[in-house]
Design a protein that fits this description.
alpha+beta; Yope Regulator, Chain: A; 4 helices; 5 strands; about 45% helix; elongated
């Protein structure tokens, strides 16, 4: 997808490494903090178009200090968890829109036990 590595905390995709740079997950609530710190967005080219993902560089000082990195990593985790919740809500909503017959077919059925 982006030619780099994805970093997870449990099931949350919180960061990526591409072109020897660390990019942390952002969302509409956290992106402004990254902008104020002078961070840059992760952008790559696909089919001749720029694609901007919700990942931004960490501040340079944070790369040199675990204490400086912690608040930025927490923001990335917050954004990743909110994105995961939104995906789950979307999946539940799409299942709820299916006709009852389709949902019943999708459920596993009990198989009779052999005597």
């Amino acid at each position: 997808m982006f030619g780099g590595w994805g970093l997870y905390l449990d099931d949350a995709f919180i960061a990526l490494v591409a072109s020897e740079q660390l990019f942390l997950k952002v969302n509409t609530q956290t992106q402004a903090a990254f902008e104020r710190a002078g961070c840059q967005p992760f952008v790559y080219a696909s089919k001749g178009k720029a694609v901007n993902l919700n990942y931004w560089t960490a501040p340079p000082d944070a790369l040199e200090s675990p204490a400086e990195m912690e608040p930025w990593a927490r923001l990335a985790l917050q954004a990743a968890l909110q994105a995961a919740l939104a995906l789950r809500a979307k999946a539940v909503k799409s299942v709820a829109k299916r006709p009852a017959s389709a949902v019943a077919k999708a459920r596993p059925r009990k198989t009779p036990r052999a005597a």
